[in-house]
Write a structure and sequence with these properties.
It is a single chain. By secondary structure, the protein is of the alpha+beta class. It has one domain: Hotdog Thioesterase (Thiol Ester Dehydrase, Chain A, Roll), CATH 3.10.129. The protein is built from two helices and six strands; from the N terminus they run H-E-E-H-E-E-E-E. The chain has a six-stranded antiparallel β-sheet with strand order 1-2-4-5-6-3, covered by helices on one side.
Length: 177
Amino acid sequence: MYDHRYIRGVLPHRHPILLVDQVEEISYFDRVVAVKAVTGSEPAYARLPDDSPPSHYAYPRSLMIESFGQSGAFLWMESIRAAGQELPGTLIFAVARDVTYHRNAYPGDTLRHIARMERVVGPNAFLNGQIWVGGELAVEIGSVIATAREASALGEESPSAGPRLATTGNTHLEELS
């Protein structure tokens, strides 16, 4: 099991966007099981009026997918490290397709991500999986594509040390790194 301190050493995210609390199991280049606890103190609830109906407390779906993506990023980055290799640039979440939502998550719930790596082709990883809340399937994700891009391809003047965040400005293109 990998604790939050270890995860911080692998993923470049920090509060409030680091959305993986613990990794329960990993099989390199194959599968990861990671968890994220949803709490009422999440930034997503900061401006929620006290008289909001229960439906307004549903954890944002985009953050559920981001947390899943970070779990997949952990799988890819730890697999690369275990193989004695380095990620060739900045890791970017390119797309999530065939996403089916079955239920919402609320403060007090724990998201359990099961991400499977289908394959790695060059600097691209293809994943799929599910998000569970308790014993209930919450989200099915048919395909996630992540890619690594060199600093020069991202318009940076000098290469960065290790993986870092790349912003897209598009809510449908989230970061995986």
